[in-house]
């Protein structure tokens, strides 16, 4: 059987990440960055597209148990066999120069024979490298990529079928380690690391970071795991946070809704900053703000919805026909054509992010205010135009209600900034007029009085889970009858077994795509928030607890969930889902609300 999305665990070094299956196989790894080409792409194809399995001889199925070491991103996978028990510990230590993947095998009981198969396939599984020995190491080279494999301990290795195989035994208390190191092929090999020292320092570093978490309410372990995941999805050199470490994991098994999420979305910015600040991670929040300011600098008309991890703007989308796709879900895509879309809501999200930063006491930056003034001047001219909306639909532009609400947010936050900081310069009169005009138009054209609900776009009958954010951003108070009606309508029309879809894909062309998709987890967190804000806290907590049950055995959340099959869907793990978990936990149980 093909592995399920929820079968994977994440390890990473804050510049890239790997997915490790229950069977001990590393099936996805991009080097040296999140958005680099994968050297292990079994996740989206077959074993021939690259993987690294390390497991007891004869163990064909999943492990006996696995777990992260508390407060860390260090993964322990254990097998019980008739001959004994063994543990494989996987990690990617914080890099000095080069990325390293470390695998430590430890005997727990008896004597266990281990077997390893390493198939390196560069460029997303399409290039078989040349492999040679050098100083007792295996060296694989193809084009710009060079990977070194070395072992610490007695290990028999040999080449066969364009792969590197290994076999060795471990007894109770014995340890054997492997280190996989990447570097540009034109450069000399980086300094060697001590895998056992790297394990100890990684555990210590992660636990020191985790100890800063100031959330101490119910479900603290789940909240901390989400924060660790967000930290792991951070590109440390710049502070950007990728939406997910993967591409093309399907929103429908066998379908075409397969997208590349290894980039940084502005739409996540407010929620991300709120989660980090609420949990006490100011340093990470400041780094994220700095990334945001660098990325959006320039002509406001050229503002993009997403950027590369260093702020890159060109993310051309293409298909990889040699990969069969996850569980035959084609096509496999890299890059993302949505980067060219117009989404007016991102202007509001940027303004809200920087407003939140000011409220949290982060230093005022002159260049930040200049950018905000330019964004508002642009919105005063452009807000009446249709756009593709926050869900990046490919069915044509519309007047999406959520986009207009976020234009209102942009104007509102700018006016508030002038009220609180009289020293700032800005056209307050024009911004107040924009705020009032947008509010009036949304209430007139985006609201259906017959059904007492706001709609997805002007004149439509479709609904959208993003409408649940109307009270959260302050567009209307939670007790407004129109808000209450919208919550009930969205819950009734978009619910599947109590979880929410983003919007309806039945008999509508709004997204321009065939097929269906699962329920979208962050939307259900938004529903919990909305229920709590309207006084239905018991219902909100029950929904929150049901959402926690959708995490896999090591606490990771996917983008979507299919209640009919019980399968997780979409790119994994998904930052948006983990942001939703953290913010909802603070809303329900924290001393102060996040976001």
UniProtKB/TrEMBL annotation:
Start and end residues of each Trehalase-like N-terminal domain: 3-165
Organism: Streptomyces glaucescens
Coiled coil: none
Catalysed conversion reaction: alpha,alpha-trehalose + H2O = alpha-D-glucose + beta-D-glucose
GO BP annotation list: trehalose catabolic process
Similarity comment: family membership: Belongs to the glycosyl hydrolase 15 family.
Occurrences of domain GH15-like (ranges): 217-585
GO molecular function, one term: alpha,alpha-trehalase activity
Pfam families associated with the record: Glyco_hydro_15, TREH_N
Designated name of the protein: Trehalase
């Amino acid at each position: 059987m093909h592995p399920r999305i929820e079968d994977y665990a994440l390890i990473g070094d804050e510049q890239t990440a790997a997915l490790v299956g229950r069977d001990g196989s590393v099936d996805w790894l991009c080097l040296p960055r999140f958005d680099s080409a994968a050297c292990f792409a079994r996740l989206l194809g077959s074993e021939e597209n690259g993987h690294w399995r390390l497991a007891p001889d004869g163990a064909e199925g999943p492990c006996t148990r696995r777990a992260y070491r508390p407060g860390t991103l260090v993964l322990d996978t254990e097998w019980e066999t008739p001959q004994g028990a063994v543990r494989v510990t996987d990690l990617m230590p914080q890099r000095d120069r080069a990325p390293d993947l470390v695998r430590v095998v430890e005997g727990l009981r008896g004597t266990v024979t281990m077997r390893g198969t390493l198939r390196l396939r560069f460029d997303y599984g399409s290039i078989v490298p040349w492999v040679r020995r050098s100083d007792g190491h295996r060296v694989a080279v193809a084009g710009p990529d060079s990977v070194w494999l070395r072992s610490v301990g007695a290990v028999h290795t040999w080449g066969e079928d364009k792969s590197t195989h290994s076999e060795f035994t471990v007894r109770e208390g014995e340890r054997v380690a492997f280190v996989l190191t990447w570097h540009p092929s034109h450069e000399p090999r980086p300094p060697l690391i001590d895998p056992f020292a790297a394990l100890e320092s990684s555990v210590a570093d992660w636990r020191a970071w985790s100890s800063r978490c100031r959330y101490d309410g119910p479900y603290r372990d789940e909240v901390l795991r989400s924060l660790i995941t967000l930290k792991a999805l951070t590109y440390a050199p710049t502070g950007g946070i990728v939406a997910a470490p993967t591409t093309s994991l399907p929103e429908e098994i066998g379908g075409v809704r397969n997208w590349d999420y290894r980039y940084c979305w502005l739409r996540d910015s407010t929620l991300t900053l709120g989660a980090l600040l609420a949990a006490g991670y100011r340093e990470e929040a400041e780094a994220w703000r700095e990334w945001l300011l660098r990325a959006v600098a320039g002509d406001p008309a050229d503002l993009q919805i997403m950027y590369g991890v260093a702020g890159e703007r060109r993310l051309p989308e293409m298909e990889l026909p040699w990969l069969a796709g996850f569980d035959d879900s084609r096509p496999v895509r890299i890059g993302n054509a949505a980067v060219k879309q117009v989404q007016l809501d991102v202007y509001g999200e940027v303004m809200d992010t920087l407003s939140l930063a000011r409220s949290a006491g982060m230093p005022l930056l002159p260049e930040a205010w200049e950018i905000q003034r330019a964004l508002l001047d642009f919105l005063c001219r452009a807000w009446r135009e249709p756009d593709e909306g926050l869900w990046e639909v490919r069915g044509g532009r519309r007047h999406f209600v959520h986009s207009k609400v976020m234009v209102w947010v942009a104007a509102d936050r700018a006016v508030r900034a002038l009220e609180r900081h009289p020293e700032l310069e800005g056209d307050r009169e024009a911004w107040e007029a924009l705020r009032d005009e947008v509010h009036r138009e949304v209430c007139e054209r985006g609201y259906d009085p017959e059904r007492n609900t706001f709609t997805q776009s002007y004149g439509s009958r479709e609904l959208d889970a993003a409408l649940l954010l109307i009270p959260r951003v302050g567009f209307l108070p939670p007790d407004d009858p129109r808000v209450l009606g919208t919550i009930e309508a969205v819950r009734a029309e978009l619910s599947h077994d109590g979880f929410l879809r983003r919007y309806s894909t039945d008999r509508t062309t709004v997204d321009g795509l065939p097929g269906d998709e699962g329920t979208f987890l962050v939307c259900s967190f938004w529903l919990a928030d909305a229920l709590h804000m309207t006084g239905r806290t018991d219902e909100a907590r029950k929904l929150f607890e049901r959402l926690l049950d959708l995490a896999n055995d090591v606490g990771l959340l996917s983008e979507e969930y299919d209640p009919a099959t019980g399968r997780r869907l979409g790119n994994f793990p998904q930052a948006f889902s983990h942001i939703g978990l953290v913010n909802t936990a603070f809303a329900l149980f924290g001393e102060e609300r996040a976001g």
